[in-house]
Amino acid sequence: MRRTLFSVLIALSFAGAAIAGADDVSKVNGTASVDAGQHAGDVSTVNGSVRIGDQAVVQKAHSVNGSVDLGKGATAEEVHTVNGSVTLNDHAQVKGELDNVNGRIKLEQGANVAGRLSNVNGDISLDRAHVGGGIETVNANLTVGEGSQVEGGILVKKPRMGWHSSDSRPPTIIIGPHAVVAGTMTFEREVELYVSDTAKVGKIEGATPKKFSGSAP
Q1: Model-level pTM?
Q2: d(Cα 90, Cα 60) in Å, to the nearest integer?
Q3: Residue 31: closest CA among 5, 69, 3
Q4: What residues in the chain have per-residue pLDDT under 50?
Q5: Where does the UniProt annotation place the signal sequence (predicted)?
Q6: How far is CA 153 from each of CA 7, 21, 106, rounded to the nearest angstrom?
Q7: Is 62 within 8 Å of 80 (Cβ atoms)?
Q8: Cα(189)–Cα(168) distance, rounded to whole angstroms?
Q9: Where are the domains of the chain?
Q10: SS3 of 33, please?
């Protein structure tokens, strides 16, 4: 996607040879974890998962070929993953950007991403959650669930070479009841766009919304 993700991939590939800082947690072929309520620096793994406990605070959470899970009320400055899902549990927050390639992103109730949230492949869902820097994707089905808020708009980009999905159908974009999308929603490719009759959205470019009532289209 952006240079940042591939820089992360290169850096983590040499994690086994690197000496982690005193407060860093680095693993290869295993889970990198931080216990509930604890503080740590960068938490990274290759071929494993990152687990940040409830109310824990870390700098960056990085994973290649594994998932990242922020526990309830946990905080990270940034989250980057390649080939793995990301879950922000209730009231977890990312102060900067959340970038993901080839993986699902789930924000549970009260979760917050202050910066941009982006991926290439993998569904994105917000459940009464907040994104402050906009959402960007290529192939994801996106649900901005009931009561969720997105600032900075939504961008669904045209696929480029190497950004393939096993599912060739247009992505489905759902803006749920009482959800708010501030900023422009721009679609560079065909999508199925559904907007609740109680949602508030800004300008829409590249798609014609289908209105729905109730909890889902």
Answers
A1: 0.88
A2: 19
A3: 69
A4: 2-22
A5: 1-22
A6: 26, 37, 18
A7: yes
A8: 12
A9: 3-212
A10: strand
